[in-house]
Amino acid sequence: MTTTLERLATEPKHDPAVLLPNVWDDLLRTVRTACPCGNTASVRDGKLVTHEPASTWDHLSGQQRTIIRDACGNGYTCRYSGRTVTLAAALERDNVLTDAERRVRDTTRAQLEAGITDTAPEGCTLPKQLAALLALADANGWRTAQAWVPERDYETRERLDGEFTVNVRISRAGGWQYDLSYYVAPGVARRTRFGLCTTPDRRGQYDTPSLKAITAAIRANPVTEG
Fold first, then answer.
1. Which of 146, 184, 206, 224 has the highest count of CB atoms within 10 angstroms of its CB?
2. Residue 64: how many CB atoms within 10 A of its CB?
3. The overall pTM is greater than 0.70
4. Dihedral sign, CA of 178, 180, 119, 108?
């Protein structure tokens, strides 16, 4: 008799007929896909990136999530990793979508066509100061995320070769969240005006401060286990 793990390990992971539910992250200006395993993952080149499930059990339904062991046998990887997220499937759902779902569909389509990625495109690198800040945040247990958005000509809407805006989020539990944005092109890297943040010592959102101030906040508030 075939076990559940054997079945999950051998079933096809790619299902080009299905467009998964998506959520729009308006601060990062990118689409996050809500995977059936309960976790969220980014979409790269129209496919779900590899990710682990949020939990091995779905506490709402009381059922085990569909997961398999990773290639090294260490921990688990969601079996939906690598699933294709297609635009065709979204278009076929037009007649059953609510207005809210249609807005998400249209946003998803635009972002997939725009080529947004969560890693630096070929030939691009993060500005040195920003890269150092993200490395510091990672080393201190903070969460980091980035979204690279291709720049387009204002009139023709054609993509500009090698020109991107990278939106970055640095956050940790307890009320810290910094969002900032940089324009990046060959030989050019400058911070834009875009960027809001929240911190425990102030109410509401306000303009993201300097990299120096963010660095000080990270050093003063490392994430410690336990």
1. 184
2. 12
3. no
4. positive
